[in-house]
Structure of CorA metal ion transporter:
Amino acid sequence: MTANLSHYENLLSRAHSNYLAQINIRMNERQEQTADVLGKLTVLGTIVLPMNIVTGMWGMNVMVPGQNVDSLAWFWGITGMLLAFGLSCYFVAKRVYGIV
């Protein structure tokens, strides 16, 4: 009976070590996924921040380029540049960082 107990104790201690190793592997996988998501959010924030600053100028009492001009050429120019900047950053992020 003592030999059987010793045998089962060894068996359970090995099973426990294997279980802890499996949990460690799963935690490392989750950590890699979390780091990947945070990297993507960082790149997205880097793209959106300059666009947010430029578009926020229209909500403040500051001189915006083309404010005193009657045509909308300045507005569409700035909007087009923001769109071009956003798309170029998207394609760079897609190619370099594999975001999408």
Remarks:
- The CA atoms of residues 9 and 90 lie 57 Å apart.
- Residues 2-56 form the longest helix (55 residues).
- The mean pLDDT is 85.
- The two ends are 61 Å apart (CA to CA).
